[in-house]
């Protein structure tokens, strides 16, 4: 499974031609002696904006935060889901990183990603316990206070239920449990910006907010079902900021070949050079232990890619398939 995730990330995170990332913030931030950024401006990663004045989204990055992932206790599926999400919207996913529940690492990674990419998503570290430090770390990264968000807290009280192990829990009576719960709605907050640009609720059935920091860092939970549900709920707000507002994304044609990669390397190199001007990328992926390998064409110009299908099938002595591995049973 890890090999498949790595292959997916390798394939989807490579930049597509013509989706180039624009220059980062025009005014660089400065570090104070305490290590806090000063002079931070609203993210201006993109030089272009849409009709609503929102920056356009061309590139993305994903930051997975959690000792449990690095320690092998939990398998990260959120980055793979995010990769597919970006691919389907035509957003060029440039980077996926996994880091520890470490304040310094979170500060460094979120500053760097916010500067370099248009759409940044973090996953993990926003629970009630001592090691859930994502909110406080990102607040530090952008010199913001943590503020109890009233609407998020109201939603929490309305939509969440105390655990069976807490039969005497009260929302009105101070307790360690209440303090712990409030940590999940104490968000990095800039009182100079509109609330709607910093705290987004995308699902009426969930109290969990998406906190948005520095204009492009979106803080999501690590629980896969929540991560996926919130990300999908965010899609309507992202579509107007895409090059293709209909969200058609890019297309992938997949071919199964019995040929060794080395046997078709020359042809694929020639093909890649020929199609690059059309914004099409050629991929080649081994399937260890299987009789067939995989070749892909990825790009936006589906008509052009379809015109190449017959040529590719013949050159690699294979056939087009709907999904990789669909011919495994025949093997």
UniProtKB/TrEMBL annotation:
InterPro entries listed in its UniProt record: FLAD1_M (IPR056596), MoaB/Mog-like_dom_sf (IPR036425), MoaB/Mog_dom (IPR001453)
Domain MoaB/Mog residue range list: 61-241
Annotated SMART domains: MoCF_biosynth (SM00852)
One Pfam family linked to the record: MoCF_biosynth
SUPFAM superfamilies from the UniProt entry: Molybdenum cofactor biosynthesis proteins (SSF53218)
Record's protein name: MoaB/Mog domain-containing protein
Species per Swiss-Prot/TrEMBL record: Phyllosticta citribraziliensis
